[in-house]
Design a protein that fits this description.
It is built from 17 helices and ten strands. It is of the alpha/beta class. It has two domains: 229 residues, Rossmann fold (3-Layer(aba) Sandwich), CATH 3.40.50.1820; 107 residues, no CATH class.
């Protein structure tokens, strides 16, 4: 009798405490989209020869990786780093070709993305784990976990492009060549130079960057997408888009591809609000709109979606399901790191250092990302990279060049790799 009463008393206490604990957790974290960590992808979702797996204890992460050419052991390795809002899955169309040429291809979901652990990221979480040098540490740790002292190349697209570049800045001994895609790299941030005899010179009296205020003063007022991605509301706007996350991603991918008629990029004269205003609205947005509202009017027709060969709906579902589970904040943290300036002093440690491994740049001919930072492509070729072997703008591709034109991208990468052998 005493035991039954005691059991009921414990159940009563637990029943009272559990809702309070759940409420406290809900206040501290975004609403969980699922309580169980997912396993590897079903093999049916991947092209033949690619497997989905996990690698434990990579700089505190359980990293989800797509892998091709993993047998036999001992092949030279190529690491591929994705962009935003993408996943390791974005390399699925080029991995088999690179593997068939004799390489072990490794493509991770980056920190904060996809099925790599730690994707339940909140806006107020510490940004330090997402700083550039720690992301480089993630990739060095992944290479080491696979038993490599060095890899033949690191390939990066979009956000992964500057990350790949930083891998070679920091550890050229590990990453023996570099392919950047869609986002040119202009080099490490500079330190003040020759200022010892210039009294009164300090960071505090340096000219303020007023371009964002100038964008807001345009008619209609505008804002840069990277600043928007750094705001608290960006994640919810895309994750909980009124049109649904799948339709949001369909319109976003469409609007930044060669399929969208508005993508006719050209160099900009200067980094000014008036020049930036020439960029499409997915780069320089209307001030009062989020990204979900920005891309919604450009949603392709049902017939266009059905005819899409480079991103059929079943493949887009991989993205919408992954981002539907996690939200976008893990990827957005990288933009917040850049806009905060908090970790710029770390990167200034490498001021003046060049990329001295063989390098190449590839982008879609219909990709505005090549030109959004005026002069970046020129600095990449003339200053940042001392062994630049080519800049290639691919016909029939916009921003998602390795998905839109995988055969040509594979050809360019293999041609580049063969020159290093």
């Amino acid at each position: 009798m005493h035991q039954v009463t005691r059991r009921r008393a414990i159940q009563t206490v637990v029943g009272a405490v559990a809702p309070l604990a759940l409420a406290m957790k809900t206040d501290a974290q975004p609403p969980p989209a699922g309580s169980r960590e997912p396993g590897p992808y079903d093999a049916a979702r991947l092209p033949g020869g690619i497997r989905s797996r996990f690698v434990d204890d990579v700089n505190s992460l359980r990293m989800h990786v797509l892998e091709a050419g993993f047998e036999p052991k001992g092949r030279p390795a190529v690491v591929m780093l994705h962009g935003f809002p993408e996943l390791a899955y974005s390399w699925r169309k080029v991995m088999p070709s690179i593997a068939s040429a004799g390489f072990h291809v490794i493509a991770p979901d980056l920190r904060g993305y996809g099925r790599t652990s730690g994707t339940g990221v909140a806006f107020d979480d510490d940004l330090a784990p997402f700083r550039t040098l720690n992301l480089v540490r993630d990739i060095v740790g992944l290479v080491s976990a696979f038993g490599y002292k060095s890899v033949s190349a690191v390939v990066g697209h979009d956000f992964g492009s500057p990350l790949a570049a930083w891998c070679t800045v920091v550890r050229a001994d590990v990453f023996r060549s570099l392919v950047m895609m869609s986002a040119p790299f202009g080099g490490p941030p500079a330190l003040p130079f020759d200022t010892a005899d210039a009294p009164g010179t300090s960071r505090s009296n340096a000219p303020a960057d007023r371009i964002y205020d100038e964008l807001a003063a345009l008619k209609p007022p505008r804002k840069h997408y990277q600043r928007y991605y750094s705001t608290r509301e960006a994640n919810a706007n895309m994750w909980k888009a009124s049109q649904g996350i799948h339709a949001f991603l369909r319109a976003y991918y469409h609007m930044k591809s060669a399929d969208w008629a508005g993508n006719k990029p050209h160099p900009l004269a200067a980094r000014t609000a008036a020049e930036w205003a020439k960029l499409p609205h997915y780069y320089v947005m209307e001030l009062d709109k989020g990204m979900a509202e920005t891309v919604a009017p450009e949603m392709p027709s049902a017939a266009s979606i059905a005819a899409n060969k480079w991103l059929p709906d079943e493949e887009l579902k991989v993205y919408s399901e992954e981002y539907g589970r996690n939200g976008f904040q893990g990827g957005l943290q990288g933009y917040r790191v850049g806009s905060s300036g908090r970790f710029t002093p770390d990167l200034q440690t490498f001021s003046g250092r060049t990329i001295d491994v063989p390098s190449m740049f590839v982008s879609g001919k219909s990709d505005w990302g090549v030109y959004q930072n005026p002069g970046a492509v020129e600095r990449m070729q003339s200053t940042a990279c001392t062994k630049m072997q080519g800049v290639h703008l691919v016909d029939g591709a916009g921003h998602w060049v390795q998905q839109e034109q995988p055969a040509e991208v594979s050809r360019l990468i293999l041609q580049f790799l063969r020159t290093q052998m």
